[in-house]
Amino acid sequence: MWSARRGFLILLAAGLVAGCTVRPLYAPDAAGRSVQEELRAIEVEMPTTRPEQVFRNALLFGLQDGETVPPQYRLEYTLALNSSSVGIEAVTGVPTAYQLSGRLQYRLFDISTGQQVLGAVLNTVASYDRSSQAFAKLRAERDAEDRVADTLAGILKTRLASYLARN
């Protein structure tokens, strides 16, 4: 009886593993199509703010690696940043630490059909300390903006690659 049960479990496990379709993300599929080639074919809309420019630059670097091809997809996005105090000095009551929240809403369109094929909202946060020096305060805030933009670009690149690998 024990060997029959063991045999059944082995067959069951083999059946489950056979259903897996795991392959390396950047490996070409059976038709020779590569996710990296499709990522290069994404046209990213122009930014209107400095944080959007940092986001776009990081995303383009991750998608295209310096190479461009005729676009097949168009990416539209909205990046919103919100800063809130998270630490207050006990004596003066002045905020000393801030948390910068970034919210990215994106939509990917197929250029040939004009249809939206993917869209979602991504969120991330970065913290920074407030200094009494104006330049240090500004630099810390900009560094936090850059970290938020870079993080969102990395998350979005992974989402886009995952979508293109499946479709």
UniProtKB/TrEMBL annotation:
GO CC, alphabetical: outer membrane
Alphabetically list the UniProt keywords. Lipoprotein
The stretch of residues making up the signal peptide is none
Q: Which organism is it from?
A: Afifella marina DSM 2698
UniProt cross-references to Pfam families, sorted A to Z: LptE
**What is the name of this protein?**
LPS-assembly lipoprotein
Please indicate which superkingdom the organism of origin belongs to.
Bacteria
Q: Name one GO biological process term.
A: Gram-negative-bacterium-type cell outer membrane assembly
